[in-house]
Write a structure and sequence with these properties.
This protein is an alpha/beta fold and 650 residues long. The chain folds into three domains: 7-237, 3-Layer(aba) Sandwich (Rossmann fold); 265-369 and 605-637, Transcription Regulator spoIIAA (2-Layer Sandwich), CATH 3.30.750; 371-514, Transcription Regulator spoIIAA. It is built from 22 helices and 19 strands. The strands form six sheets. A six-stranded mixed beta sheet has the order 2-1-3-4-5-6. α5 crosses α18, α15 (475-489) crosses α17 and α18 crosses α19. The N and C termini lie far apart (53 Å). The model is unreliable at 638-650 (pLDDT under 50). It comes from Actinoplanes auranticolor. GO terms for molecular function: catalytic activity; iron-sulfur cluster binding.
Length: 650
């Protein structure tokens, strides 16, 4: 049965909203398939605005992987801004995909990619607009399976009432396995209804279905245990790990946005995983082991991706791109190939101790310098040892001076505030370090025309990290430290005027902390906050701390807990954490020991270059570190004429 486009009704509303182009679709790289010619249909959602969601690498990869299957259709949907949401409700227009404007409720799966927990309220808005019951228990065989993925799905307990299932880890192979299970179930005539389909997914042992697990609580509010409520589902659910990234060279046909987006570049993930061991970093912990893409695959992907898209920037993505074993040859090879074109190279965030003059010269070879960001994370040597960010102030000064000496006039430095054991002085040292950066840069370049932006984020403890047990700092303490830091930066006016200062205050971070380490009881807070009008919590102009605090005060006391219990309370070693039944491969005892090591400022090495320290991932997940060098160089690929800069066209 064909599904009609809702665009005729939607089109009437678009002149009345801001940035209507974001709802139109039809981008280069978009795919529209015949509904009736396919058997399994996915709606993929990044639960934020189009400008943030479209460039998301995970969604783009899964969109391509699924659409390459002849009998599978995948379309995209994004969060609609409140102005359009109100009009859609008024006019009865449902949540739609941007590709063919089909109603989301008609698809087999609604797959949501959560990079951050602040997208949870947008999920509820989308479900509501789609006409899908908010709570999974009220859905029937007529409704899509609501499936969560992305980093936040490593603790999906706060949204357990709203999702049907969650996938932990890499998605490329997982979505194909899920597609196969749905295809078979539909071919058999959907036996056993929705429950049978969810049971088949749960039996894979890598898809978590919350309804098949019960949570018992102790009188003091802590979790007693999480156990399966039926015999044929696993006690623990394991993450997925895609090995051999060369076999998955996506995206091949990147989406080119119609409206302005946060990133406009061809992005290649040059490796996945990180073993630097920063204790706050969930991404580095849950994506282990390190798996590199070879230099030849990266070169081929860049060639084909640029020819298809016409982008003029290539982003070499990973959690620490300068750590790739072939990064030097990769950058010099790409810089050589695109020397006479308008193509520039960028590394999104560069480790201070991995950036050198050769890399600087290759990244600026054709005169176009993309932004340079370094992340020391902590202002003092002491706090950097606590978080295992092994970078000295001398490393940082030397690195930034290298950038200034090679023509960069501005660099960005990223730090965190509110880290475990942090004092006021640890934060004030960020200001002193920024002064030293400007001072050294002026001496090295002989000019005052250099700038440095200090960007501060508030620390949020995340599941599956050594800091998962840590207490959060209160927002007023963080905000006071940020005020003191601003005064410190401006204490020397000559240096201070060359330093930009951006920060996120403590309130949104406390709520993110509630959502990141919450259990199923936090679902009531999310629902109440959404009922009060919360949307787009990642946007300061839409976020309301007062609403969230009210929602928590109205719902949590019934369970004998409160907002502080979930956020500013330090956990004990034997406490059952809400995500303990979800296996990221990391040994919980190892994480605890690393948490204890942080308090003695012990620095843990990187197992890529030192002996294994038994974090648990490789043996428990049956995986291994995959790094080069391969000994190969980039093939001499000739860029197409379309990429040549105007000065070199004939």
């Amino acid at each position: 049965m064909s599904v009609s486009s809702v665009f005729p009704q939607l089109e009437q509303l678009l002149p009345r909203v801001s940035k209507p182009i974001q709802y139109v679709g039809g981008e280069l790289g978009a795919v529209v398939k015949d509904w009736d010619a396919t058997t399994v249909r996915w709606a993929l959602m990044y639960p934020d605005a189009y400008e943030v969601g479209l460039p998301n690498q995970g969604v783009q990869i899964l969109y391509e992987v699924l659409n390459e299957q002849p009998d599978v259709l995948a379309e995209r949907t994004y969060a609609v801004w409140p102005d359009l949401e109100a009009l859609m409700k008024e006019a009865g227009v449902p949540q739609f995909t941007v590709d063919a404007h089909r109603p989301v409720h008609a698809f087999d799966v609604l797959g949501l990619s959560f990079a951050t927990e602040l997208g949870y309220t947008n999920m509820l808005s989308a479900l509501d607009l789609a006409g899908i019951p908010l709570e999974s228990q009220h859905r029937t065989v007529e409704h899509p399976i609501v499936l969560a993925g992305g980093h936040a799905s490593f603790n999906p307990e706060p949204i357990a009432d709203f999702i049907d299932a969650a996938v932990l880890g890499d998605g490329e192979e997982a979505v194909l396995e899920i597609t196969g299970i749905i295809r078979e179930w539909k071919a058999e005539g959907c036996p056993g209804g929705r429950d049978e389909l969810l049971l088949r997914l749960a039996r894979t042992e890598s898809i978590y279905v919350p309804r098949f697990y019960d949570v018992d609580y102790l009188p003091d509010g802590r979790i007693q245990r999480v156990v399966p409520n039926r015999p044929d589902v696993p006690f623990r659910v394991h993450k997925r790990t895609t090995m051999d990234l060369d076999a998955w060279p996506y995206p091949k046909k990147p989406l080119v946005p119609l409206a302005e987006t946060v990133h406009e570049r061809y992005a290649v993930e040059i490796f996945r995983g990180c073993t630097r061991g920063c204790r706050f970093c969930q991404a580095g912990m849950i994506t282990r082991p390190v798996r590199e893409r070879s230099i030849t695959t990266v070169g081929q992907m860049v060639k084909e991706g640029l020819e298809f898209s016409g982008f003029s920037e290539v982003g070499l993505l990973s959690l620490s791109s300068a750590d790739h074993s072939e990064i030097g040859d990769m950058c010099s090879g790409l810089a050589e190939q695109y020397a006479d074109t308008n193509v520039s190279l960028s590394l999104p965030s560069t480790r201070v101790d991995a950036f050198n003059i050769d890399l600087a010269q290759e990244l600026s070879r054709n005169g176009r310098r993309t932004g340079l960001t370094f992340a020391p994370e902590g202002g003092s040597e002491r706090i950097r040892k606590v978080i295992n960010k092994m970078v000295t102030e001398e490393d940082l000064i030397r690195t930034v001076v290298t950038a200034y000496s090679n023509g960069w006039r501005s660099v960005k430095l990223y730090f965190m505030c509110g880290l475990p054991t942090e004092t006021d002085d640890d934060v004030l040292q960020i200001g002193r370090m920024a002064h030293e950066v400007i001072r050294a840069g002026r001496i090295a370049t002989g000019t005052k025309d250099i700038k440095c932006t200090v960007s501060i984020g508030a620390f949020v403890p995340k599941p599956h990290t050594p800091f998962q047990w840590a207490a959060m700092e209160r927002p007023e303490v963080i905000d006071n430290r940020l005020r003191m830091l601003k005064q410190e930066i401006n204490s020397d006016r000559s240096l201070g005027r060359a330093i930009g200062y951006r920060y996120h205050d403590g309130e949104p971070s406390l709520i993110e902390g509630l959502l990141s380490r919450g259990d199923r009881r936090v679902g009531a807070v999310i629902r109440r906050a959404w009922d009060k009008g919360q949307r787009f919590d990642g946007w300061s102009e839409h976020f309301s701390y007062a609403r969230w605090v009210e929602a928590a005060a109205e719902t949590l006391p019934a369970f004998g807990v409160d907002l502080d219990w979930f956020t500013t309370r330090e956990r004990e070693q034997l406490e059952v954490l809400p995500w303990d039944h979800l296996d990221s491969g990391l040994d919980k005892d190892w994480l605890w020991q690393d948490w204890q090591d942080s308090k003695t400022e012990f620095e843990q090495d990187d197992c890529r270059w030192t002996p294994c320290f038994d974090c648990g991932v490789c043996p428990s997940m049956d995986t291994e570190i995959q790094i080069g060098p391969t000994g190969k160089k980039l093939l001499p690929l000739t860029p197409t004429n379309g990429l040549r800069s105007p000065a070199h066209t004939h």
